[in-house]
Design a protein that fits this description.
The complex is a heterotrimer of chains A (108), B (272) and C (104).
Chain A: H1 2-19, H2 23-50, H3 56-70, H4 74-101
Helix pairs in contact in A: 2-3, 2-4, 3-4
Chain B: H1 2-13, H2 21-35, H3 53-63, H4 69-80, E1 106-108, E2 113-115, H5 117-127, H6 138-150, H7 165-176, H8 186-192, E3 197-198, E4 201-202, E5 215-217, E6 222-224, H9 226-236, H10 247-259, E7 269-271
Parallel strand pairs in B: 5-7
Antiparallel strand pairs in B: 1-2, 3-4, 5-6
Helix pairs in contact in B: 4-6, 7-10
Chain C: E1 6-13, E2 16-23, E3 45-52, E4 55-61, E5 71-76, E6 84-91, E7 96-102
Antiparallel strand pairs in C: 1-2, 2-5, 3-4, 3-6, 6-7
The chains are: A mainly alpha (108), B mainly alpha (272), C mainly beta (104).
């Protein structure tokens, strides 16, 4: 029991000390995350464009993300980037699904 | 779950034999004949105005003095102007370019692609060392408006050689494929929902879609081509529009015009 | 300045002539901007004058609310075959044009 207590105290000490990272590297990590999301969204959108299935909203959201990022509004940038990635992937999913699904609509 | 869906879709499509274009067209026309049993098939060239009496009355009044007349006059004048090298549009087309619009789009074996009237106009210009016209610009619209006007009363009889089947199938896929954030296909509005209201407008039937281009749209305050409308439709469902006269749109026009074989040409027309 | 035709159609029904007019004119409001951001100057029809056998029967004061290539129709009483109907316009830049038909 005693050993368990010591283990608990040591673990929580490490956990607490681990949490005291500096503010700056938190922001840097967040900034990298936003950039990564934007890059992924752009890549997915490019793929959708090649397949002629791109959605207009993806471009609008990417613009919002980039503008927010430039204004150092990391929270808004992340939200917009996540949405842009979502719609870009949705456009690709639509292109995949429609490869077969269109045939069902042809009158016979 | 996805796998099961895939299996079901595949099983459902086993009944889909690779139909030939003529069977496709017969089924296409039959759909509209049954949906609009009280509308004469040829009347669908007037689009939504064949389906709504009140709109038709307003439109007929407009047709007594149509807004596209100015465009046709300009086109007639532009068509007659010779190129710097002395040649003219007349030298590039059958019958001096008069009454030829019903031949387009056609499949060109040499380039293995679909040639639309607009593409042919620019090919004529480039062959004679003239700069190409902007497909979305006024000059192209005026010239094609005049050429369409001279083809009034003709009927479509588009041919699809074996080499053109792939292009036809691609156009067909585009027509039935959902796109954009709204996830609509051309067929969603112009087949499944044809005759219904979309906001305040009646949706027209695709069986009359190729006959009346280029069209004067009050929205555009000018005459514009079919590909301009394709771009607009795609953007309206949230899909990024493709370039005018891009391969996908030319193939779509090929499919659509073949589906309109036998229909009378009535371009240019006025539309809301 | 290239010609700005005034196209006219007219028919007499029971002594009343129905005249339809289509005028070529850009009708710029002066509030639109071009792609470079510069304002497109205002150019719109200010006054329309209609004559029947040389007598002014209608004048209209137009402005920026009338759209491009205006179409308009009007009726003239006591009209008969052989009468002349003329429609003319002037715009804010001092340009003018007119059209004329003889009723059948």
């Amino acid at each position: 029991m005693n050993n368990l207590m010591i283990l608990l105290v040591l673990t929580s000490t490490f956990a607490i000390s681990g949490c005291s990272e500096s503010q700056e590297s938190d922001v840097a990590a967040q900034g990298n995350e936003v950039q990564s999301l934007i890059d992924q969204a752009i890549a997915a959108d490019q793929l959708a464009r090649q397949r002629q299935h791109a959605w207009i909203i993806t471009d609008e959201l990417l613009q919002d993300a980039i503008t927010a990022q430039a204004a150092n509004n990391e929270v808004a940038a992340k939200v917009a980037a996540e949405r842009a990635l979502f719609t870009a992937n949705a456009a690709l999913a639509q292109a995949d699904k429609e490869q077969l699904a269109w045939r069902a609509r042809v009158p016979r | 779950m996805k796998f099961l869906l895939g299996v079901l879709i595949t099983l459902g499509n086993l009944g889909y034999a690779y139909a030939d274009p003529e069977s496709d067209r017969e089924a296409f026309v039959k759909f509209y004949a049954e949906r609009f049993s009280n509308v004469d098939m040829q009347d669908h060239k007037d689009g939504a105005y064949a389906l709504d009496k009140a709109k038709r009355a307003q439109w007929l009044e407009m047709e007594e003095f149509p807004p596209y007349e100015l465009a046709v006059d300009e086109g007639r004048a532009l068509f007659a102007v010779p190129f710097s090298n002395g040649e003219s549009y007349a030298s590039c087309f059958d019958h001096q370019g008069i009454g030829v619009k019903q031949q387009f789009p056609k499949f060109d074996m040499a380039s293995n692609s679909v040639i639309t009237l607009e593409l042919a106009v620019n090919q004529c210009r480039e062959a004679n060392n003239e700069p190409a016209l902007d497909y979305l610009g006024d000059e192209m619209s005026f010239i094609t408006a005049y050429m369409a006007f001279t083809s009034r009363g003709e009927h479509f009889d588009i041919q699809i050689p074996d080499a053109g089947l792939a292009a036809y199938e691609q156009g067909k896929q585009f027509f039935y494929e959902r796109r954009g954030k709204l996830d609509f296909a051309c067929s969603s509005c112009h087949m499944t929902a044809a005759g219904n209201l979309l906001r305040a407008e009646v949706l027209s039937a695709s069986v009359g879609h190729a006959t009346h281009w280029p069209a004067y749209r009050f929205k555009w305050e000018q005459v514009g081509g079919l590909h301009k409308r394709f771009i607009e439709c795609n953007e309206q469902v949230g899909a990024v529009g493709l370039a005018p006269q891009s391969e996908a749109y030319r193939n779509l026009e090929y499919f659509l015009t073949y589906m309109n074989n036998g229909m009378e040409l009535n371009g240019p027309a006025s539309r809301k | 300045m290239e010609s700005r035709p005034v196209k006219m159609r007219g028919k007499v029904v029971d002594g009343v002539a129905e005249i339809k007019v289509l005028m070529k004119h850009p009708m710029e409001t002066g509030t639109r901007r071009d792609d470079a951001g510069a304002v497109i100057p205002a150019e719109f029809i200010e006054q329309v004058t209609c004559e029947h056998n040389g007598n002014v029967v209608l004048t209209a004061d137009w402005g920026t609310s009338v759209s491009k290539n205006p179409y308009f129709a009007f009726k003239v009483k006591s009209a008969k075959s052989g009468d002349t109907v003329k429609v003319g316009w002037t715009d804010n830049l001092g340009n003018a044009s007119k059209g004329e038909i003889v009723l059948k």
